[in-house]
UniProtKB/TrEMBL annotation:
Record GO terms (molecular function): dTDP-glucose 4,6-dehydratase activity
GO biological process entries: nucleotide-sugar metabolic process
Protein name: Dtdp-glucose 4,6-dehydratase
Species whose genome carries this gene: Spathaspora passalidarum (strain NRRL Y-27907 / 11-Y1)
InterPro entries per record: NAD(P)-bd_dom, NAD(P)-bd_dom_sf
Name of the encoding gene: GAL102
Length: 328
């Protein structure tokens, strides 16, 4: 018996931190949608994050390296379109560690630019062949780091000025997407969130790394003097933003900054996490910090304006202390 689904959705990078949280939430929320997850399963992604979803009839997993398997991807999505009938694309696939990008920039170029463009090419072909029959959507997850070092509320029209190879690859694919919008009239929505945190995040980002170091009684490495500031957005708030934009019926080919309300420097963040872990406000957090050599250039802060998505009725709900309580 063939099951009818209202949407058939391709999730690229679905075993990583944000992608797996997305699937865990949306596969259950929308049982009338079918979700196909593609992931190459690298060090920061984990099949166990989504393994339980295989019990559901609206989820499928495919292991595939998007940067090296264009022919396979094209055959699956385009040549044999009527076997899967994917109409909605949400791209989470990306390498996101700034420090790793400084060591292996070409690897980031391959995985953040070529891999995404391979998916874009399939999307373009599907639109060419079937747009008279189906409505196609594409949402790309970018980052606030594409704007570079900013200390003012930059809106979606802000200049892209990335300062590290990771951010540069994300800015590059944003511009490639923009070229596809103009050249091929493709509807593609770009989301640029702050630093997202929550369950299943690999411990190379400062929040899970700090928690892990405290649990293992090892020093917490902090770049420079710890005064760099970041805004943090809890994963559920980001997922609600995606849900709103995906289902709002608004015009596509838009860019949205998805910003949290909490800006905090690294020293204060470590202090707050120590207070949560040790359940006291009197803890001396400095004894757990080991200051390490700073990056060649380390953005002081990212300050983005999120008025555009707020006009749709979205706002962050989970404040940082509450979010930390949910993952410690």
């Amino acid at each position: 018996m063939t099951i009818h689904f209202d949407k058939r959705v391709l999730i690229t990078g679905g075993a990583g931190f944000i992608g797996s949280n997305f699937l865990s939430y949306f596969v259950r929320k929308y049982p009338n949608y079918h979700f196909t997850c593609i992931d190459k399963l690298n060090y920061a992604s984990n099949f166990e994050n989504i393994a339980d979803l295989l019990q559901l009839n609206n989820f499928k997993f495919i292991k595939l390296d998007l940067s090296e398997s264009f022919e396979t991807l094209y055959s699956m999505l385009v040549t044999n379109f009527h076997q899967m009938e994917i109409t909605d694309f949400i791209n989470f696939a990306a390498e996101s560690c700034v420090d790793r990008s400084l060591i292996s920039p070409l690897y980031f170029t391959k995985n953040n630019i070529l891999a995404t463009q391979n998916v874009l090419e399939c999307y373009r072909e599907l639109r060419n062949k079937y747009s008279h029959q189906y409505k196609f959507n594409f949402i790309h997850i970018s980052t606030d780091e594409v704007y570079g070092d900013i200390n003012q509320n930059t809106d979606e029209q802000g200049t892209l000025c990335p300062t590290n190879p990771y951010a540069a690859t994300k800015a590059a694919i944003d511009l490639i997407i923009q070229s596809y919008q103009y050249s091929y009239n493709l509807p593609i929505t770009i989301l640029r969130p702050n630093n997202v945190y929550g369950p299943n995040q690999y411990p190379e980002k400062i929040i899970p790394l700090t928690i892990k170091c405290l649990q293992e009684q090892s020093p917490i490495p902090i770049h420079g003097d710890g005064t760099n500031k970041r805004c943090y957005l809890y994963i559920s708030d980001f997922l609600h933003a995606i849900d709103l934009i995906w289902h709002s019926g608004i015009s596509t080919s838009e860019i949205y900054n998805i910003g949290g309300d909490c800006e905090i420097d690294n020293n204060s963040l470590v202090k707050l996490i120590c207070q949560k872990v040790f359940k006291t406000n009197s803890v001396d957090h400095t004894q757990y910090i080991q200051y390490v050599k700073d990056r060649g250039y380390n953005d002081k802060e990212y300050s983005i304006n999120n008025d555009k998505i707020r006009q749709l009725g979205w706002k962050p709900v989970v404040v940082l202390p509450e979010g930390l309580d949910m993952i410690i």
